[in-house]
Amino acid sequence: MSIADVKKNTDLRMQKSLETLRADLAKVRTGRAHTGILDHVQVEYYGSPTALTQVASVTLIDARTIGVQPFEKKMIAVVEKAIREADLGLNPSTQGDIIRVPTPALTEERRKEMVKLVKSEAEDAKIAIRNIRRDANEGLKKLVKDKECSDDDERRAQDEIQKLTDKAVSDIDRQVVDKEKEVLTV
Asked: What are phi and psi of 139, to 5 degrees?
């Protein structure tokens, strides 16, 4: 393993952490409807758990209502039950062959809880980034110990890894600010 490998691996792992945070923040409900809320709903489809988006078409009917249209008519009750039991605070209702999922407006108290959740997710992501930095620095120390690189090279590589860490943390902070603004907008 070389210094370049350590840096490349570190960058990839940090990008994955940022993607995970982006996905986690997409789950956080805002006052408006968006189809991403239902991305993680699992439906029992012929005995195996399947993503909702694979058994139904998910669209926006209006600003506060999501429309879910199962590809098979017999799946309507199963899909409706899966959405209700997904612990999203949503109450779907069936109208013919389409399931309407109204998203209730958030109260001020609920919005503040959502902001706390967003900050908690961000802190978890920052911890993950710091752990990745620690692993990279240990990898660099091991290279020096095994005499595969010099102390100066290690110091330069640590500086570059710190820059990657700072960039990732600033990305996390930016995502949190954007999501907070979105959650607090009435």
From this structure: -60, -40
